[in-house]
Design a protein that fits this description.
The protein has 126 residues and is mainly beta. It has a domain of 84 residues: Immunoglobulin-like (Sandwich). Helices cover 13% and strands 40% of the residues. β3 and β4 form a beta hairpin. The protein is elongated and about 80 Å long. The model has no long low-confidence stretch (mean pLDDT 82).
């Protein structure tokens, strides 16, 4: 087997293979990290080179879907998935207070918890 020593060629071909793999159905491997805190959890998704406009975050009941799409400049109507992952959220999450922030080339989803512990319920009289 003969080794290719032309670094410029290797750099160009590696970038081409990565792009064609992604467009051909492969996916970019992101860094996904869940940090649990006292009052909230923070889901961090880092996809190098992906702009904030390429992300989409969807909440359906307790399922959170995070995806990133590649838009073709030549064919704006065409989209190729770069990343797609579903996360099942626990029932003690305040779904109305989720917050999504893009900062330092990473997406952060703040997932606040509902207050824990017993609470008295109001009794209505009819």
């Amino acid at each position: 087997m003969k080794l290719i020593k032309d670094k410029k060629f290797l750099k160009n071909i590696a970038q081409y293979i990565d792009v064609t793999n992604t467009i051909g159905g492969g996916v970019v491997q992101p860094q996904v990290n869940m940090v649990k805190r006292k009052k909230e959890a923070i889901l961090q998704v880092a996809l190098p080179g992906v702009s904030p406009e390429q992300y989409q975050v969807l909440l359906d009941k307790n399922q959170l879907t995070v995806m990133a799409l590649h838009h073709s400049a030549q064919h704006p109507e065409m989209q190729a998935p770069l990343f797609h992952q579903n996360f099942l959220l626990p029932p003690h999450v305040d779904f109305n207070s989720l917050k999504v922030v893009h900062e330092n080339q990473a997406l952060r989803i703040h997932i606040p918890y509902l207050p824990q512990g017993p609470r008295f319920l109001e009794i209505e009289q009819w």
